[in-house]
Amino acid sequence: MASGPRKTKAAAPVEAAVEAPKAAPAEPVSETVSETLSAVEPVIANVVAEVKKAKASVQQAAAETAGSLEGSLGAASKSLQVFSAKAMEAYQANAAASVQYVQALSGVRSVSEAIALQSEHMRKQYEALSAQAKELTALAQQVAADAAAPLKDQFGKTFNKK
Fold this sequence. Notes:
Number of strands: 0
Largest sheet: none
Low-confidence stretches: none
Distance between the termini: 109 Å
Shape: rod-shaped
Number of helices: 2
Order of helices and strands: HH
Mean pLDDT: 81
Structural class: mainly alpha
Number of domains: 1
Helix content: over 70%
Strand content: under 5%
């Protein structure tokens, strides 16, 4: 039996089974951004103020330290001049003693006299060199103290600030 085309039920038109959720009316984006910026602006202003304050403090400390360094170098320079003058004085005294020794040695008539003269010269030179070394050591310590004092004071001021 041949029958005609089969009839099927027509499907009901498919409407959107899923409806888009109804969004709450959104605030305009520009208002949200402005609110956020207005909330952040005081924080940014505080940070900028703190950075400027820190920068000024560092600049002041650097200027003071530079001044102390100049003072330190000036004091060291003066102390070194005194040290150099004393070293030159010691050199001249030692040179004069050597000249006197050679002159005295040239007038010696016997070996025993030369040995006695040499022993006396060496004893005097040992005493002179010991005294000169003590004096130059004290001056060198003074140079170091003079050079360090302004820096020590400045570092104490800089790092003890509260």
